[in-house]
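Lecture 7, part B: from sequences to assemblies.

Below are the input chains for today's worked example.
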Amino acid sequence: MKMTWSQGTHPTGRLSSGGHWIHHPYLLLVFRLFLAAVFIYAAAQKIGKPLAFADEIHSYSVVDYGPPLYCMAVVLPWLELICGLLLATGVFIRGSALILLGLNAMFLAVIAKRTTDYVNGGTPFMKVYFDCGCGFGATFAWRKLFEDAVYLLVSAVLLFAPLHRFTLSFKRRSS
Amino acid sequence: MKNVKDAILQALAILAVAIVVGFVFNAFSRNGINPFKRPARVPAASGTIEMRLGAIRAITLEEARRMVEGGARVIDARRKADFDEGHIPGAILFDYYDMGTYGDRVLPLLADDDEIMIYCSETSCDDSELLANELFSRGFKKLFVFRGGFAEWSGAGLPVEKGDQ
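Predicted structure of the full complex, as structure tokens:
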């Protein structure tokens, strides 16, 4: 088995993946590298700090202190890093995109819940500002919700794209 | 359909690798934890909490009392409702999870070389440490975390103020 950089030629011989413009090969490459950069950076801020990350997860009042929370704090940053690296290199793109789709849906839900709590407490929506524990520091909630929605959409596009080009593919020697 | 099956199989493989790598790294990491029991927290009055916070000092109840009497800045990192029920005299409310509101309100009141004591509810809460970390990153260098928090202070019968600031 040898590893090669594949241009992802379509079985028909065309370089283009065809179909919707959003599945243009260069656009998919940009999406992949964008999502990879975001999650590699986010993971790098959390790896090696499981206790602090556990506190941040706990602040959402969704998971109480205990083995499930600590296991999440140990594994989640590595999951983000591995998905980021795989997206960047073009290996297991659909699997990585599926995981990031799930993670972003979860992040959106918990950030929306906390934002709602603040809004119910009297803070105007546009002024809700906190550190979501995502690795990017404190920011306005509306901005974080928008960013996570973008990551969610990009993950979905990568997951359902018919063909990816510029991937590190594995080929068996025919001899 | 094949793509969906591929995606699920790949995701499971990635998850398995992340679990293995995460736990192996955690086992050898200086800051690693045992996820299957509650990790030991830094006890009150342990002297320094360099492992997590760099130059920030943890202080005892007695040290906290002396700092309050000496006029140090005191910051309460709890929620407003807890603060209103009772707080250390002279404390300023700074809910760590509402950085937008309290950052603008409190940071202008503090000078870089002020001695700042931070506390939250009790030993098991971490908001005081998290806030100390945040203030440290914003250039405040004389930070003291009273890990016993309001529970230890009020339990010792020391003066308590009630109400809004």
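Note for the exam: The two ends of chain A are 11 Å apart (CA to CA). Keep this in mind when comparing with the next example.
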